[in-house]
Amino acid sequence: MPNFQQQYTLWDEFLKAWPVSRLASMTLDEYTKAGSKFSFTYWIEARLAEMGSIWGGSAFKFGVFSRKNTESKPSDAKLSYSDEYGWYSTLGNTADQAFEKVRGQVAEVAQLAIDGDLDALEAFEHLGESFKWKIAFHYQARLNPVIVNIFKRDWLAAFTGDTTKSNMATLQKAVVAKC
């Protein structure tokens, strides 16, 4: 059985380390640093995993990421690489350019979550779906939750009995209403 008090304590630690006010000024190394257990992406993916997993898939879900394997890789129209970072090519020509966009996107998602604006979160297309909703979950008003800690549409649809391929905002609202 999960230890909810322990999870809430960890969540409090996350919000103390990563208050929404810090997001707009975090550095690239604070956001993502291979081997760091304190970066924003490590917190979201690993340290907070028991409150909704986003494990698996590619590190590109973070928009830009610090590469553990620094073998030379060719960039292309979709994916770009430097010796230290990987990022979506559409975000910029350098990791720093990509990060400037991603940092603003992360801060915007957190603020939308604080505001409880699920429809605006749904319309926000700049971050991967699971990453976006995981961020939103952790910045929502905990005493008045509007997002559950499941970030896969199919799982939420199965729980609600939705067969119409509803979007995440609709499914999140349905799950909260059902609970």
Topology summary:
Blueprint: H1 4-17, H2 20-23, H3 28-31, H4 40-47, E1 64-66, E2 79-81, E3 85-88, H5 95-115, H6 118-123, H7 129-139, H8 153-160, H9 168-178
Antiparallel strand pairs: 1-3, 2-3
Helix pairs in contact: 5-7, 8-9
Question: Describe it for me?
Answer:
By secondary structure, this protein is mostly helical. It has 9 helices and 3 strands; from the N terminus they run H-H-H-H-E-E-E-H-H-H-H-H. It has helices at 4-17, 20-23, 28-31, 40-47, 95-115, 118-123, 129-139, 153-160, 168-178, and strands spanning 64-66, 79-81, 85-88. Strands 1-3-2 form a 3-stranded antiparallel β-sheet. Strand 2 (79-81) and strand 3 (85-88) form a beta hairpin. Helix 8 packs across helix 9. The protein is globular, with a radius of gyration of 17 Å. It starts with a helix and ends with a helix. The mean pLDDT is 94.
> What is the overall number of helices?
9
Largest sheet: 3 strands, antiparallel
Shape: globular
Low-confidence stretches: none
Order of helices and strands: HHHHEEEHHHHH
Radius of gyration: 17 Å
Return the structural class.
Answer: mainly alpha
Share of helical residues: 40-55%
**Which strand order do you get reading across the main beta sheet?**
1-3-2
In short:
The chain is 49% helix and 6% strand. It is mainly alpha-helical. The mean pLDDT is 94.
